[in-house]
Specification:
alpha/beta
Length: 324
Amino acid sequence: MTDTATAARRPGEQALSALGLGAPALDPADASTHTFPDGGRWRTEIPSCEGPEALAVILKESSRLDVPIHRISQGSGVWMLTDAEITEMVEASAERDIELCLFTGPRGTWDIGGSVRSDSRGGGLRARGHDAVAGCIEDAVRATELGVKCLLVADEGVLWTLHRARLAGIIPAGTTLKVSALIGPVNPAAYAVYERLGADSLNVPSDLTLDHLTEIRRVSAAPMDMYIEAPDDLGGYIRMYEVAELIRRGAPLYLKFGLSKAPGIYPWGTHLRDVTLDTARERVRRGRLALDLLARHGADGDMAPLGSRLPGSLNRFPTESATD
């Protein structure tokens, strides 16, 4: 690990120290020792890119504001896009060497189950029953056949099944599997289990403390995704001033630029076109704000090279072949 994070200026440090209010020194033992395979400690992600038109807006705005993008993700699902739309998104993202991640299949809030709408939110966003799992697998096969290389997953069983599918060659071996914020792990034991089930990156809730991130990094090197600004339905948290410390504690980390105080757009359709394009554009601007803050504090080093997408060597549960 380089010393970029420890050498960085902390927010308000000089002024507060002059007033006798300086913060305690950072503890080197809190820092993550892990990186992406190329040595980078952070990558960027723009979420909620729901179709080709939104993708075009994001790419144009990222060029205008000079925001580097490693990954673009979609939330409505593979099933909400035509083959032609998926192909257009695959080709446009490939031209910029950006990883495109599409969500798999039906989930609890979009089926007829009532428990997710109860006070307990029982069942959560997971795939209910065999048919829901089958829909997720159908989406995964279709998307990867069209060239998609990253799949978003919101169910442990779907994750394990897709991991086995790539080992069996049903989907390409190089497909990466991303755990959704909708089921993000909140403790190191759960994080390690998701890694072993096949996760290549894991979206943790944005309300985890810095100490929680350090605890996770002591048991797992699997890449972590975190909303620097979370949508309102995920808490609406804004952690802009903590970005450098989030990287120091959580690396390898995807900085995910969400948007609070914005209408929900899932499942997307043309009836939501204007808000989808406006929020897509603003997510890129939020990314520029976070990157500017990192630069002002001297903490913008160690970004992974653009075009990098693989997670490195991770721990997995042993699997039996389909014929055993």
